[in-house]
Structures are given as structure tokens and as C-alpha cells.
Amino acid sequence: MKKFLFFILKPLSFLPALAMMALIFSFSAQTGVSSGQLSYKVSYKLVETGSRVLDKPLDDVQIDAYARRIEGPVRKLAHMTEYFILAITVALPFYVYGLRGFPLLLVAGAICVGFACTDEYHQSFVAGRGPSLRDVCIDSIGIFFGIMLVRIICWTLLAPSRAMQRRRRRKQKYRSIHR
């Protein structure tokens, strides 16, 4: 029963990746004006929060000036973060299925970069937006770090259990040879 349940539930491990793809697609479907307003609002909130945390009171004009100054980097960081999360949600299920090392980087990376390319193409049909190779490169940085994080965390967390399994197999092999 446990194996059957695992067999049924294992494919569902890809649902977070599909959900993240849908979220990215919905952000890309926003018009250039809507997307710009969202980036500005986030930038404004960051400056406003930073002003409070650092106890450096700024008026609305100063906050607006700083928000406009950081809006571009905030937008690019959002791209990187979206694809960082996508890479984690894509790489983790493949790791669970046994794909490790460089093949994991290739397969998960190809899926995520391929999605980034199609997403940029999708933006060419949205008012005020357009495809950008630069954005695909920025997305790829997030993808690389997301896959590396999965590899590091899974290796760190799963290494002890793999070592125990190897020891168990060696003992079984030793016992079967010396009987």
C-alpha cells in the first residue's frame, strides 16, 4: 500500500512548478503600465520601510525619488527571484526521481530556461511589453542558483541516509559471501 501511495503521489511533486509557471505567466500578461506600477509600488514600499527601520525620516518626494532610482534593479531582482523559485520547484521533483549532479543541472536548467524564453516570447504579444534576451540571462542566474540550492540542501540532508544504506548493503553482501 505504501509503494502504491508513493507511486500515485510522486507525480504530484511537479504541481508547485506548474503553479509557479502559471504565476510567472500571469505577471508577464500584465501590460507594461501595470507591470511598471507594480514595480514602483514595491520600490516605494521598500524605501518607505527602509526609512522607518533606519530611523531616517524621508518625506514623500524623497521616497518617490529613491523609489524611482531603485525601480529598475528591483524589477530585475524580481525576475531573478521568480526563476530562482521556479528552479527549486522544478529541480526538487527531479532529485526525488533520482536525477542527480550535472544531469539535474541540465534537465532542470533546460526546462526553466526554455520556459523563460517562451515567457519572453509571450510578452511580445502584451501591450507595452517586449521580449528581452537580457531578461532571459537574468532569469538564468536565478535558475542556476535555485538548482544549486536544491543540490546542496538535498546532498546535505540526504547524505547520511545514503551512507547508512550503503553500509547496510555492504553488510548484506558480506553476510551473503561468508555464509
Characterise this structure:
The chain is mainly alpha-helical. It has six helices and no strands. The protein has helices at 2-9, 15-28, 32-53, 60-96, 101-123, 133-177. Helix 2 packs antiparallel against helix 4. The chain is elongated. 19% of the residues are buried. The model has no long low-confidence stretch (mean pLDDT 90).
What string gives the helices and strands in order?
HHHHHH
Compute the number of strand runs: 0
- List unreliable stretches of 5+ residues: none
Nearest-integer average pLDDT: 90
| Overall body shape | elongated
Helix proportion: over 70%
* Binned strand content: under 5%
Radius of gyration: 22 Å
- Count the helices. How many? 6
Tell me about the largest β-sheet: none
Q: Give the class from helix and strand content and strand pairing.
A: mainly alpha
- The rounded distance between the terminal residues' Cα atoms is 33 Å
Write the layout of secondary structure elements.
Blueprint: H1 2-9, H2 15-28, H3 32-53, H4 60-96, H5 101-123, H6 133-177
Helix pairs in contact: 2-4, 2-5, 3-4, 4-5, 4-6, 5-6
List keywords for this structure.
179 residues; 0% strand; mainly alpha
Question: What can be said about this structure in brief?
Answer:
This protein is mainly alpha-helical and 179 residues long. Helices cover 83% and strands 0% of the residues. The chain has helices at 2-9, 15-28, 32-53, 60-96, 101-123, 133-177.
